[in-house]
Write a structure and sequence with these properties.
The chain is an alpha/beta fold. The chain has 23 helices and 19 strands.
């Protein structure tokens, strides 16, 4: 086996693992790796900030289902991006340089202890201490990132290690296998027993269903047993929202009104790849009362983390659901829709929230109505933390997996734009729309410049309530409208001018009837000019979203139809 430069072996491993794009911020401590990248087939997208590189790699991973890769020179500023990936179970490899192994104790330039910063927000943080370790550490990093509950790995490459040599032969090297754990047969039978004896069962599909590629098996099980299916925010796209068995979303923030009603009427929940996050469950006494829970997860340490399920099923979501389908088919022929399915359908018809407002200023639900009507089913939407995420979860419709990408748990502001860059790089043929809020957009304008430089086209729809909606729901001892009342260009941020300063088209919309034309214009401009394009929609300043502390205590802010009267007795 021949001896090659360490950095060359690392790049060979990346290519073998299927990496075709690396997002990074080059610097002195990582230059040998960059020199090797220049001789490879891998495209490099230079970001303006290391955390932007992690978010772009995150978006790439969510869109493809495989590990995204980013690189940086010191790595300490990657922590926010690593946390976002860890919290949402996103496979990612972050490579960072470091001073020579003999130097850190001398407090040399960029010699911070990056591993200690990264350990709480990664599955594995490791320093390569010898050149001979490098190919093997990278192989193991990909295996760790993809295995079990996926997540990020940080690899620190001291510059003297990068400059070293190691033995490596591409023809004799390959990715390490990733285990796909199967459930115990007796546990599968017990789960099907519980589902089949329930009178009003629901399936709750979390992000783990999408990550496992188990959406087909989920559909088979739901249709065979005629079980209504709900999704969590991370699970949007796991089940088509126009399917007769779709039962909405339950939650205290991102929820549908009829989804909460259906959940509270159910007597058994089969939760697959869901972690029972607090914004979903709310008050646990309300959430759990009167229903049993089956929890399916690839990570058995999730069982009992929030509350103890009646049955835990440890295994990869795809074989678990496939074996449940086989067990169900061995017991009964495909069922027809029964009373429970018809009841859920009645809730869906009668308990929707309004989205047809013609008001000026624009009400946020109208923005999502226009997006739902205009964009095709296979559009990829990217959104993150803020009121715009809550409105999106409540009103935006999704039909396919990996087409609704949301930074659900960690919520770093400004995630959407670099993530949209990653998505578009992964799938340049797709229509990509980043749904953003005005509160975080200024912090990522530098990454808009990256998209402009590399001709990465996508549409940015900004829901602009001038930052007041997010904090306006809190009880403040002063009048916020008096404290912050700045028109565009007078102390505030003129987002249209900011976009145009990078050569990117932008348009502001203030009337609901103009939204659709603006979306059509933006999509055409992005495709023609190969640039990001902004549609800034000005919505009412004090716009609020329906939220509450428990599933049965959601405060609604708009006129609603009368509550449907349904006989829940059996």
């Amino acid at each position: 086996m021949k001896r090659v430069p360490c950095a060359e072996a690392v790049v060979a491993v990346l290519e073998s693992e299927g990496v075709n794009t690396v997002f990074g911020a080059p610097g002195a401590a990582v230059l040998p790796l960059y020199a090797a990248l220049r001789q490879s087939s891998i495209r490099h997208v230079a970001v303006r900030h290391e955390v932007g590189g992690t978010h772009a790699a995150d978006g790439w991973a969510r869109a493809t289902g495989d590990a995204g890769v980013c690189a940086g020179t010191s790595g300490t500023t990657m922590a926010a991006g690593l946390h976002a990936a860890l919290a949402d179970s996103v496979p990612m490899i972050c490579v960072t340089g470091r001073a020579a192994t003999t130097k850190p104790h001398r407090e040399v330039f960029q010699a911070a202890d990056t591993l200690e910063v990264a350990r709480p927000v990664t599955k594995w943080a490791v320093q390569v201490k010898e050149p001979a370790q490098a190919p093997w550490v990278f192989r193991e990093a990909f295996r760790v990132a993809r295995s079990g509950r996926p997540g990020p790995v940080l690899i620190e490459l001291p510059i003297d290690v990068q400059r070293g040599t190691c033995r490596h032969d591409r023809a004799l090297d390959a990715p390490l296998p990733v285990a796909v754990p199967r459930p115990l047969p007796q546990v599968v039978r017990a789960a099907v027993d519980m589902v089949c004896t329930a009178k009003r069962p629901l399936i709750l599909a979390g992000g783990g269903v999408v990550a496992a590629g188990a959406c087909g098996e989920l559909l088979e099980l739901a249709e065979h047993l005629q079980i209504p299916v709900q999704v969590t925010l991370m699970g949007k796209g796991a089940f088509p929202e126009d399917h007769p068995l779709f039962a909405g979303m339950a939650g205290t923030q991102t929820q549908t009104r009829w989804g909460n009603a259906a959940f509270l009427a159910g007597d058994l929940v089969l939760a697959v790849g869901a972690r029972f996050g607090d914004r979903h469950t709310g008050d646990l006494d309300v959430y759990r009362k009167g229903r049993r829970f089956i929890h399916v997860d690839i990570d058995p340490t999730q069982f009992g983390r929030v509350f103890e399920p009646d049955l835990g099923v440890s295994g990869h979501a795809r074989p678990v659901l496939a074996e449940m389908v086989a067990e169900a088919r061995s017991r009964t022929a495909a069922l027809q829709p029964g009373k429970w399915v018809r009841r859920v359908g009645e809730l869906r018809r009668t308990m929707t929230r309004r989205d047809d407002f013609d008001d000026v200023p624009i009400k946020p639900p109208r923005v999502f109505r226009e997006m739902n009507d205009f964009y095709p089913r296979d559009t990829t939407f990217v959104t993150a933390i803020g009121l715009h995420q809550i409105w999106s979860g409540q009103f935006q419709t999704t039909y396919l997996p990996r087409r609704y990408l949301v930074c659900g748990q960690a919520g770093p502001p400004g995630w959407e734009v670099p993530a949209a860059i990653g998505v578009t790089c992964a799938h340049p043929e797709r229509q990509v729309v980043a749904v953003v809020g005005d509160h975080s957009f200024p912090s990522v304008m530098e990454e808009v410049a990256v998209a402009a430089r590399y001709r990465i086209p996508f549409v940015i729809v900004m829901i602009d309530n001038e930052c007041l909606g997010l904090i306006g729901q809190a009880e403040l001892p002063y009048d916020l409208n008096d404290a912050v009342d700045l028109p565009h260009g007078e102390g505030g941020v003129d987002h249209v001018k900011a976009m145009e300063s990078f050569g990117c088209p932008a348009r502001r919309v203030e009337r609901p009837g103009d939204i659709r034309d603006a979306l059509a214009w933006a999509s055409a401009e992005a495709a023609h000019k190969r640039l990001p394009v902004l549609v800034e929609v000005m919505v009412e300043r004090e716009a609020k979203a329906a939220m509450g502390p428990a599933l049965d205590a959601i405060k609604e802010f708009e006129p609603l139809p009368e509550l449907v009267t349904v006989d829940w007795s059996d």
